[in-house]
Amino acid sequence: AQTVTQSQPEMSVQEAETVTLSCTYDTSESDYYLFWYKQPPSRQMILVIRQEAYKQQNATENRFSVNFQKAAKSFSLKISDSQLGDAAMYFCAYGGNAGNMLTFGGGTRLMVKP
Amino acid sequence: DTAVSQTPKYLVTQMGNDKSIKCEQNLGHDTMYWYKQDSKKFLKIMFSYNNKELIINETVPNRFSPKSPDKAHLNLHINSLELGDSAVYFCASSQGLAGAEETQYFGPGTRLLVL
Prior knowledge:
A: mainly beta, 6-stranded mixed beta sheet, 12 strands, 0% helix, globular, B: mainly beta, 7-stranded mixed beta sheet, 11 strands
């Protein structure tokens, strides 16, 4: 079974600075997908970014980018120019070939200081 | 327009009661899911339906019964509610069954509190 680990329960960053959230996973599959979801206090789960394992190029979405290290099974999220609205829980998720379910990490709470 | 909607947003009930949570998606997706998020924020898949057929049924007590009247709806019925059922329940949907290639879109969640 796949597992996803987020080793940082909480992180804080100064507004306008850059922060990196860590995620590691364990799998024996070669084809899979990785996701970062954001959960603000409203509880809505919002897709931030996704990465296909077969792509070597790291995904980027505006201020959000990932560092995908397939051999190391690492998938970190970098948030540049942090904004107050970035404060939320961030979940790393793995999607493989065994059905279409997502396996989530335990989440990292990001606080943004003004 | 809300893509994936759930009702109710909050549900407070007594132990032993039976309750339902409704989910609707207007994205034209074929696959819908239920996830449970416990008090420690841990999210876990419960069920997955594709075109009204059950695809995934994780280790969930049979007090939980999903019902899909059509592919735009996946309701969750819970019998004989227990304290441990208190959680936030998320509905999600995706276009097809191509594994995780299909991005899942989540509803706003339903916070269930069992007293």
